[in-house]
Amino acid sequence: VYVEILDVEALAKKIGAARTSDNPDGVSHEYTIPIIQDHSTGAAVFSSTAIAAY
Predict the structure, then answer these.
(1) Which residues of 16-25 are buried (b: 16+ CB within 10 A; e: fewer)?
(2) CATH code of the domain containing 47
(3) Does 2 reside within a domain?
(4) Where are the beta strands (DSSP E) in 1-54?
(5) 31-46 pLDDT tens trace
(6) Which of 43, 44, 22, 24 is nearest to 34 (CA)?
């Protein structure tokens, strides 16, 4: 699925993906792609390394 860069955070939150990191301000967070969601288990996995291991 193609996702606009401005929509990555909302999509990640919607599917329950963990944030990638915390921003220095301590309030906002970073969400990055790639992200996959396994519909059979509901798992949301991000980062190429974690996806390959999954």
Answers:
(1) ebeebeeeee
(2) 3.40.30.10
(3) no
(4) 21-22, 29-30, 35-37, 44-46
(5) 989 999 999 999 999 9
(6) 44
Which amino acid would we find at residue 39?
H
Residue span of the structural domain in which 31 resides: 7-53
Domain count, the chain: 1
Q: Is residue 1 part of a domain?
A: no
32 Cβ neighbours under 8 A, 6+ residues apart: 8, 20, 46, 47
Q: What is the model's pTM?
A: 0.76
- What helix, strand, coil percent values describe the chain, rounded to 5? 30, 20, 50
∠ CA 20-21-25 to the nearest 5 degrees?
A: 145
Q: Does residue 26 have a pLDDT over 90?
A: no
